[in-house]
C-alpha cells in the first residue's frame, strides 16, 4: 500500500510553486521562488573585483553563494548569522550552479549570490538554488543552461516528491523518511544530488526519474518568470 501523505498530496505531487524575477531593484539580478510555505529570495551582485585579493582566481571568475535562514523564517526564532548548516548549503549551492555559469571571461572577479529564506518549511536548499539560478540569468551572467531543483525522497517504502517539514523531520512510520534534493539542468543532467537517509538502488532510480520529470515543470515556471521581466 502506498503511503497516505498527511498533506493529502499524491506521491509525485509537489507543493504549489511560484516564481518572480526582479524583486530587488538595487541588485544586478534578483528572484523569488516559493514552494508551499518555503520562500527563498536571491540577489546577485557582480561580476565585480574579488576581495579578499588572495581569493582571486586569475584563470576565471568565482561564483560565491551565501545561504541564510532569516531569524523569523521558522516558528522558533533562530540565531542569526552563519552556522555549519548554512555554510554547507552555501557550498552545495555553489556546486549545483557552477556547471552552468560561464565565468571564463571574468578572471579575478566574483559573482556574489545572496540567498535568504524568509520562510522555511523544508526544501530550502532547492528553493534557494531555483531562486539563485533565475537571479543569475536576470543579472545577465552567461549561462549554459538553467537549473531546477527539487527533492525526491521516500516515506516508509513509498517514493515521493518534495518532502515538507513534517515529512522531513517528524515522519517515523516504518522505514522513516529519506530526503534526496536533486538539481537538474534544463536538458535533464544532474548537477547536484544528496541522499539523506536510506534507499535502495531501484527506488533511488525511481526517485531520480520522478524528480527529473518534475524539474521540467519547475523550469517552465522559472522561464515564464524570466520572460515576464525581460533581461536587464
Ligand atoms: P532543507 O531546508 O534544504 O530541506 P534541512 O533538511 O537541513 O534542509 O532542513 C529542513 C527544514 O528544517 C528547514 O527547511 C527548516 O524548516 C527546518 N530547520 C532547519 N534548521 C533549523 C533550525 N536551526 N531551527 C529551526 N528549524 C530548522
Summarize it:
It contains 4 helices and 9 strands; from the N terminus they run ββββαβαββαββα. It has 232 residues and is an alpha+beta fold.
Could you describe the 3D structure shown?
The protein is α+β, with helices and mostly antiparallel strands and 232 residues long. The chain has helices at residues 84-97, 124-138, 165-169, 201-229; strands at residues 17-21, 29-35, 38-49, 62-69, 109-119, 147-155, 158-161, 177-185, 190-193. The strands form 2 sheets. Strands 1-2-3-5-4 form a 5-stranded mixed beta sheet. Strands 7-6-8-9 form a 4-stranded antiparallel beta sheet, sandwiched between helices. Helix 1 (84-97) packs across helix 2 (124-138) and helix 2 (124-138) runs parallel beside helix 4. The longest helix is centred in the last third of the chain and has 29 residues, at 201-229. The termini are far apart. Adenosine-5'-diphosphate binds next to helix 2 and helix 3.
Amino acid at each position: 500500500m502506498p503511503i497516505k501523505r498527511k498533506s493529502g498530496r499524491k506521491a509525485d505531487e509537489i507543493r504549489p510553486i511560484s516564481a518572480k524575477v526582479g524583486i530587488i531593484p538595487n541588485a544586478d539580478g534578483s528572484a523569488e521562488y516559493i514552494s508551499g510555505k518555503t520562500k527563498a529570495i536571491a540577489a546577485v551582485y557582480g561580476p565585480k573585483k574579488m576581495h579578499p585579493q588572495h581569493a582571486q582566481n586569475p584563470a576565471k571568475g568565482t561564483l560565491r553563494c551565501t545561504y541564510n535562514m532569516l531569524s523569523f523564517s521558522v516558528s522558533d526564532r533562530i540565531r542569526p548569522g552563519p552556522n555549519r548548516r548554512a555554510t554547507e548549503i552555501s557550498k552545495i549551492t555553489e556546486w549545483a550552479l557552477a556547471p552552468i555559469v560561464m565565468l571564463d571571461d571574468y578572471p579575478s572577479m566574483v559573482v556574489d549570490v545572496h540567498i535568504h529564506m524568509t520562510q522555511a518549511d523544508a526544501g530550502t536548499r532547492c528553493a534557494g538554488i531555483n531562486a539563485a539560478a533565475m537571479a543569475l540569468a536576470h543579472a545577465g551572467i552567461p549561462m549554459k543552461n538553467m537549473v531546477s531543483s527539487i527533492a525526491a525522497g521516500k516515506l516508509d517504502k513509498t517514493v515521493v516528491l518534495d518532502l515538507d517539514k513534517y515529512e522531513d523531520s517528524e515522519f517515523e512510520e516504518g522505514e522513516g523518511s529519506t530526503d534526496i534534493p536533486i538539481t537538474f539542468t534544463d536538458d535533464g543532467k544532474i548537477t547536484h544530488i544528496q541522499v539523506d537517509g536510506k534507499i535502495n538502488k531501484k527506488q533511488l532510480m525511481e526517485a531520480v526519474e520522478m524528480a527529473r520529470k518534475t524539474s521540467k515543470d519547475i523550469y517552465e515556471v522559472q522561464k515564464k518568470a524570466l520572460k515576464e521581466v525581460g533581461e536587464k
